[in-house]
Amino acid sequence: GLKSWGRNSEVAHATSATINGPYTRQDTALPVRAHNPEMVLGRNGTNGTMFALFHIFDATGQAPAPCVNSSEPTSASNGATVHMSYSPEGPWQPFTLNIGCNNPAPMQHPNGTWYVVCNTRNFVLYRADAFSGPYVEVAEFPGRPPLTGVWEDPFLYLDTVGNWHVIAHAWDHTLKTNCNASNVSGHYFSEDGLVWTATTTSPYGH
Fold first, then answer.
1. pLDDT of the residue at 68
2. Average pLDDT over residues 157-186
3. Residue 14 pairs with which residues in a beta bridge?
4. Taking residues 18-38, what's their average pLDDT?
5. Which stretches within the chain are classed as H helix?
6. What is the mean pLDDT of the chain?
7. From CA 42, how far away is CA 31, in angstroms rounded?
8. What distance in Å separates the CA atoms of residue 131 and residue 106, rounded to the nearest whole number?
9. 190 Cβ contact list (under 8 Å, min separation 6)
10. Virtual CA dihedral for 33, 39, 41, 47, nearest 10 degrees?
11. CA distances from 64 to 1, 30, 35, 55, 57 (A)
12. Which CA distances in Å does 113 have to 42, 104, 109, 177, 200?
């Protein structure tokens, strides 16, 4: 179940004729432990199109030692990895990122530069010339607006006119009743990727 995601998460490969599904599982793309997967269909110089699959943990196929006192090994200090392939069927080649990166949110800019937002202190944006790094810090986002809960699992993208956006899942563990009225999402935006602003309007609801 969800309580054991830190031990048992893997990345499944599923296909569908349409983006809305239904999806059919084909195989396991990455074995345990691999969590928070996010795929980028990117460009890799003269080699053409490639698939970069970012995730936390290292997907070695070896689960950690059994939990003790119901404590799961879920710390993001286990690091982040990106696997690369020229086909969604694999094979996948691993590259360890040079940064501690929880909830990686990658993007390849139209100019070819790679960016990734990590949920470390606040959200932090990094850049690199290659998908595998090395990554350097570009900007740290401001704190979340008050009373908007915890923000995690960011997604980074550019809109049609080149503005930067990050949307995120939000949750508030202090809410014990009327949870269907709670905030479930957050939104940062920027004109240049350097200076970010958090909105108080949720980009999506329940």
1. 60
2. 87
3. 25
4. 96
5. 5-8
6. 89
7. 23
8. 9
9. 139, 163, 164, 165, 196, 197
10. -20
11. 16, 16, 14, 17, 11
12. 10, 16, 5, 45, 30
The neighbouring-strand residues paired with 159 are none
Q: Write out the two tokens for 97.
A: 């990122």
- Cα distances from 66 to residues 1, 10, 30, 159, 181, in angstroms, run 15, 17, 21, 44, 37
pLDDT per position as a tens digit, 88-115 = 999 999 999 999 999 999 999 999 999 9
Q: Sorting pLDDT into bands at 50, 70 and 90, what band is 46?
A: low
Rounded-to-integer distance, Cα 193 and Cα 184, Å: 24
Give the residue, 160 or 71, on which the prediction is more confident: 160
First to last CA, the chain: 22
Render pLDDT for 59-85 as a digit per residue (tens, 0 to 9): 999 877 665 655 555 444 457 899 999
* Dist. CA 151–CA 57, nearest whole Å: 20
Q: Are 164 and 192 in contact (CB under 8 A)?
A: yes
Q: In whole angstroms, what is the distance from residue 86 CA to residue 78 CA?
A: 26
pLDDT at 195 over 50: yes
